[in-house]
């Protein structure tokens, strides 16, 4: 259980670090974009070699496909309502002036829940999968924290308010890591397989609709190689048996 708590803390720590950086400093968009692209590549590889592979081993095609598609649909529907609530201010198609603090926070929580559950389940079933997910989540949460904190700062939120907000978001993420390990992983193999692929579908939908478009907008063609390198890192880790 100590390892689960440690992995959970490491997965959400970049949100708080990013919030500090976004609140105090002006981080160049290109740097944020490159980090986002690297994280996206790492996450895609973690889904491929980690979550979906484990899901297939546990539940076969039926559960893997069902969960994957449903997970994507759930994220898309949830994201639609987050946008309506004023979230996604720093994303490609929406300006920060039209965003709201509540919407931004809800968007961050929506992004983080599937990742956190997947990390918890992965740690229970196969620590190697948990490590792959941790690297991907760590890489993607840092730019998320920076961008979202920057948006909240534009709304005249104080540094204290921003940090408290992101500490709460981080605690929610940590809670779902623990839930994934202690509760969701105790279900039948077919249910766990469906949950793993559901999380994978939701995460991939998030990457496609928010993280990757923003990375390209902010860093241009540099995002391409950053994505490749992120994917390559997870591929190497998955094959050397770390």
From TrEMBL:
Residues passing through the membrane, by range: 6-25, 32-52, 64-83, 162-184, 190-208, 220-238
Record carries keyword Transmembrane: yes
Keywords attached to this entry: Membrane, Transmembrane, Transmembrane helix
Name of the molecule in the record: Zinc/iron permease, zinc transporter, ZIP family
Organism per entry: Berkelbacteria bacterium GW2011_GWE1_39_12
């Amino acid at each position: 259980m100590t390892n689960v708590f440690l992995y959970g803390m490491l997965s959400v720590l970049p949100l708080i670090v990013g919030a500090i950086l976004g609140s105090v400093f002006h981080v160049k968009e290109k740097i944020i974009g490159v980090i986002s692209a690297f994280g996206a590549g790492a996450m895609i590889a973690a889904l491929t070699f980690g979550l979906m592979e484990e899901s297939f081993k546990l539940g076969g095609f039926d559960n893997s496909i069902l969960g994957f598609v449903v997970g994507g649909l759930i994220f898309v529907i949830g994201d639609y309502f987050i946008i309506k609530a004023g979230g996604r201010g720093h994303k490609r198609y929406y300006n920060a002036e039209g965003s709201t603090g509540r919407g931004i926070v809800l968007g961050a929580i929506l992004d983080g829940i599937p990742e956190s559950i997947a990390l918890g389940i992965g740690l229970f079933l196969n620590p190697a999968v948990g490590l792959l997910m941790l690297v991907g989540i760590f890489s993607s949460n840092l730019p998320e924290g920076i961008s979202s904190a920057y948006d909240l700062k534009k709304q005249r939120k104080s540094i204290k308010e921003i940090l408290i907000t992101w500490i709460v978001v981080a605690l929610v993420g940590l809670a779902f890591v623990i839930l994934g390990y202690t509760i969701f992983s105790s279900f039948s193999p077919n249910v766990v397989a469906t949950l793993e692929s559901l999380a994978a579908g939701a995460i991939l939908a998030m990457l496609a609709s928010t993280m990757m478009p923003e990375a390209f907008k902010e860093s241009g063609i540099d995002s391409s190689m950053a994505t490749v390198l992120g994917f390559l890192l997870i591929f190497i880790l998955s094959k050397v048996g770390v």
